[in-house]
TrEMBL record, chain A:
UniProt cross-references to Pfam families, sorted A to Z: FecCD
Membrane-topology annotation of the record: Multi-pass membrane protein
Residues passing through the membrane, by range: 68-89, 109-139, 151-172, 192-212, 243-267, 279-298, 310-329
Subcellular location, principal: membrane
Family to which the UniProt record says this protein belongs: Belongs to the binding-protein-dependent transport system permease family. FecCD subfamily.
Protein name per its UniProtKB record: Iron complex transport system permease protein
Record GO terms (molecular function): transmembrane transporter activity
Annotated localization: Cell membrane
UniProt entry keywords in alphabetical sequence: Cell membrane, Membrane, Transmembrane, Transmembrane helix, Transport
Organism of provenance: Pseudonocardia oroxyli
A biological process term (GO) from this entry: siderophore-iron import into cell
PANTHER family: FERRIC ENTEROBACTIN TRANSPORT SYSTEM PERMEASE PROTEIN, PERMEASE OF ABC TRANSPORTER-RELATED
GO CC list: plasma membrane
TrEMBL record, chain B:
SUPFAM superfamilies membership: P-loop containing nucleoside triphosphate hydrolases
Pfam families according to UniProt: ABC_tran
Keywords attached to this entry: ATP-binding, Nucleotide-binding, Transport
The name this protein goes by in its record: Iron complex transport system ATP-binding protein
UniProt cross-references to InterPro entries, sorted A to Z: AAA+_ATPase, ABC_transporter-like_ATP-bd, P-loop_NTPase
Ranges where the ABC transporter domain occurs: 3-228
GO molecular function term, any single one: ATP binding
PROSITE patterns: ABC_TRANSPORTER_2
Length: 340, 246
């Protein structure tokens, strides 16, 4: 198992690097991988390129590179947060958005958009992030304890409230943009990626991945049940609170830049467990890699299939995710979380 | 090393579940807790493995008040087999048993293998726990508790899914470990056969405590459990055995 795990981790890292280079090259203006690498090298080391290459270079470096990197970061983050939230609420069907955080983000984004309380390039993202954190705080406050069932039920109930609030905002202030914003936040996408927005979310997500991986042993204990976990020396309440804070922060940061991208956080943890087993120490290494690769390719599909138009990312993840999920459900060998 | 409960009281939802319970478990002895449903047995155990904190009284381990120790420190000395019946995730049996090493911060494969052998689950090492039968899973959980290499083992109805051979096998294996054991059992004949001392709980109070022969009397059975029974000595071991009258 350990040899296979090492092979998987190595192979996936390689696949991720290749996918990033290929995806940066592909699009309405396709660039061969060797040119892509040359442009990237030029950008990173300050090398020179021919004058007639500048327009393509601009597309590669200013548009596609941040976009593909954002897809990789968010894909990795969503997959890892999916693992974390499934452990937090002890439910195999949970995903990063089950606690109402994405709906909160949408409310925040739309509020900023229709009221204009914050201005600037990142105003809407900031609104979404604040909305996500407000939603998380509300869910935690209303649920009062971090007990799994209460968290899920509170999250679901409040998500309805947030959606209603968002619909009301759009209804009352029917600006042309607000409906589009709602749709964008609901289905997600990496079209808004810029070099300016990337570092914040990348730092938050990568730091979160490291912390989650460090908690892997505790997440294993949590899966045995609260009584057994506490008898093994784990402060279950404290872990749940920390886990809730971390996953909310990561989710908020990701939703703020890319909307609520569905299915990645739900499917990837299960795919990985099928191959490597349930031990979090392994799952929390492989799931981010798989999530990153998946998101890079899904985004590539979304922006090339009907080019020059773009499919909403949620549509593509659903097209890929739903069949995978149904096949998973039918496989007898894989026991889905709960007992048979 | 002695585990002792000093006048502990537990209230849940405004009701006192355990009242002024005092009980000593001497080093290397097996002490059974018996009593009808809802008499507070499991609640008392939860105080020992620290899922609950008594509102009054203390649980002491070698004169150290448990509530003053970090959870992880007491977990290195007290392991529990709780009513949690397995796992949300499909760990293999050896992965599950290795989780018993968590408070020690290692995965010592020798200890893990030894623990699995002791309760006869070593042949299931690579099976997923979610595919096991209830009894197999229960034995895997017993192995997990043993892998914690505790001084004290606390067991909440460890035999309720086991067939008779495994009931006897598990309890005999636990007795042979020379650990200090506090165990809740429903089967009074099993309790009489393996326990050095038995405590009888009724409505959260300890109503009798002592060697099985002294505690399991027709009067106690009638007044606490509401059953009629004859007590006879086992022809070979001399332990008391109960013959119920229907």
């Amino acid at each position: 198992m350990t040899i296979m795990f090492t092979k998987c981790a190595f192979g996936l890292s390689l696949a991720l690097l290749l996918s990033i280079v290929v995806a940066i090259g592909l699009g309405p203006a396709a660039v061969p991988p060797q040119d892509t690498l040359r442009y990237l090298g030029a950008a990173l080391t300050g090398g020179t390129i021919a004058l007639d290459e500048v327009p393509v270079y601009e597309i590669i470096w200013q548009l596609r590179t941040p976009r593909v990197l954002l897809a990789a970061v968010v894909g990795a983050g969503l997959a890892a947060v999916g693992v974390g939230v499934q452990a937090l609420v002890r439910n195999a069907l949970a995903d990063p958005f089950v606690l109402g955080i994405s709906s909160g983000a949408s409310v925040g984004a739309v509020t900023v958009l229709v009221t204009g309380v914050v201005v600037g390039v990142y105003a809407v993202s900031l609104g979404a992030f604040l909305g996500a954190l407000t939603a998380a705080a509300l869910v935690h406050l209303v649920a009062r304890t971090a007990s799994p069932l209460r968290l899920v039920l509170t999250g679901i109930a409040l998500a309805y409230a947030f959606q209603a609030a968002m619909a009301l905002l759009v209804y009352l202030v029917p600006q042309g943009e607000s409906t589009a914003t709602v749709l964008y936040w609901t289905l997600g996408g990496f079209g808004a990626a810029t070099w300016g927005a990337l570092p914040v979310v990348a730092v938050l997500v990568v730091a979160g991945l490291v912390v989650l991986r460090r908690w892997a042993g505790d997440l294993d204990l949590l899966a045995l049940g609260d009584e057994t976990a506490v008898s093994s020396g784990l402060d279950v309440r404290a872990l749940r609170t920390r886990l809730f804070l971390l996953t909310s922060l990561m989710t908020g940061a990701m939703v703020a830049v890319s909307g609520a991208i569905g299915f990645v956080g739900l499917i990837v943890p299960h795919l990985v467990r099928m191959v490597t087993g349930a031990v979090h120490g392994r799952v929390l290494v492989l799931a981010p890699l798989v999530g990153a690769v998946l998101a890079v390719w899904v985004d590539l599909l979304a922006r090339t299939v009907v080019a020059p138009r773009e499919l909403p990312l949620g549509v593509v993840t659903a097209l890929v995710g739903v069949p995978v999920f149904l096949v998973l459900l039918r496989r007898r060998a894989y026991v889905f979380g709960s007992t048979r | 090393m002695t585990l002792s409960l000093h006048g502990i009281a537990v209230a849940l939802g405004g009701r006192e579940i355990v009242r002024e319970l005092s009980l000593d478990v001497a080093t290397g002895t097996v002490v059974g807790l018996v009593g009808p449903n809802g008499s507070g047995k499991s609640t008392a155990l939860r105080c020992v493995y620290r899922a609950l904190r008594p509102v009054r009284g203390t649980v002491r381990l070698d004169d150290a008040d448990l509530s003053t120790l970090p959870l992880r420190h007491s977990a290195r000395r007290i392991a529990a087999m709780t009513q949690d019946n397995g796992s949300d995730l499909d760990f293999t049996v050896s992965e599950l048993v290795a989780l018993g090493r968590a408070p020690h911060g290692d995965r010592d494969p020798t200890i893990v293998r030894e623990a699995m052998k002791r309760v006869g689950v070593d042949h299931l090492a690579d099976r997923g726990v979610l595919t096991l039968s209830g009894g197999e899973r229960q034995r895997a959980l017993a192995a997990r508790a043993l892998a914690q290499t505790p001084e004290v083992l606390v067991l909440d109805e460890p035999t309720n899914h086991l067939d008779i051979a495994h009931q006897i096998g598990l309890l005999a294996a636990l007795r042979d470990t020379a650990l200090t054991v506090l165990v809740v059992l429903h089967d009074l004949n099993l309790a009489a056969a393996v326990c050095d001392r038995i405590g009888v709980l009724a409505h959260g109070r300890l109503v009798a405590v002592g060697p099985p022969r002294e505690v399991l009397t027709p009067t106690v059975l009638r007044e606490v459990f509401g059953v009629e029974a004859e007590i006879v000595a086992h022809p070979t071991t001399g332990r008391p055995q109960l013959l119920y009258t229907f």
